[in-house]
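so my prof wants the structure for this chain in the tokens format not the other one, which i didnt know existed until like an hour ago. anyway here's the sequence
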Amino acid sequence: MKKLEVRLTHAPGQERVVGQLAEAEHRVYFEYDPVFLQSPTWLSPFKLPPEPGLHEHRDLAFGPLFGLFDDSLPDGWGLLLMDRCLKRRGVALETVSPLDRLAYLGTRTMGALTYHPPALLEDRDRELMDLQVMSREAHRVLQGTSGDVLPQLLRAGGSPGGARPKVLVGIRGMTMISGEDDLPEGYTHWLVKFHTAQAARDDGCIEYAYAAMARAAGLRVPATRLLETSGGDRFFGVERFDRQANRRIHVHTLGNLIHANFRIPGCDYATLLKVARVLTKNHADVAAAFRLMVFNLLAHNRDDHVKNVAFMLNSEEEWQLAPAYDLTFARGPGGEHTMTVDGEGRAPGYSHIRKLAAAADLSGREVAAVVEAVSEAVAGWPRFARVAGVSKESTRTINAEIRQCLKRLGP
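here's what i got, hopefully its the right format
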């Protein structure tokens, strides 16, 4: 039987044992620690409430782990790097269990959950990051032409979610170091995304422009930067909202909160608004989730799946909607939104959002104000694109789609 101790790590030296994860005969179990239950934190209220006894993960249609712990695992890019490392060690991938992957990450996880004992990794001193080198190495990994992956890329790129290559870094002024774990004083935690072979070379500029446009639309967005290399590449950087200095914040994605597989489109924005209302008990968070939906509809961000929106626990252990992230132009699966709007994914209109708003106790006045504010910001796409250095071709392509969205969403 494989076992892992799960801890809620708030900061270096400040942690609580949450419980024990175990795997036996291809079944996963979890049991909360009795001391944790004396004053529990509701880390996953819907699928793993803090109750005594052994919890067996039976929702295998969702995945091999409880959603609470699945949020600690990376998706395509991070798993690719993890597999490269394991194969280099001579490990047969078919023998690797979900608990093995959590142990591999150990304390180098996103969010506040850590796993013990962590697998032993090479202990390396902090190294200065060269984004040009990291990007080139990431392309080699994606193309399958890289034999040995740079250890720095394995560590800094192995835990973030999503399929696009990325690394975790620490930034202080113009200095950048690897940032997969706690940082020296004065550094802040950032995530940097690289280009993919399929994406345009200005995709970082596009995402940077979208972040600025989202702020203008009234969304809460983390600090962002365009990081330019000596080779002329410009990469999108975003400050991590799961870190405040070296303090860790517990974050739970919508998909893993409700055990909805993000790879299978099947969720509606009505679910997001309902979860926001039940979980946060705060009308402002419901309104913020509604504003995010309207932005995605008007800005033609159709990669709006259930892991691209999340909730977080604040210092008072109250749930709130996390800042918006992964906002960019995307055509979506089959040209549709990944999350539907009252069942409509291809051409949602004002009537669809009004119906969802009414069910979420948002007034007609609130709806009109949000749509007006977001429309005004999104209509300024060419200006945001110009400031961010987006190519003229990409600017025109995106602008044409946005104009259609603005026309369709008009009241």
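also thought this was worth mentioning. The chain has three domains: 2-116, 131-244, 251-409.
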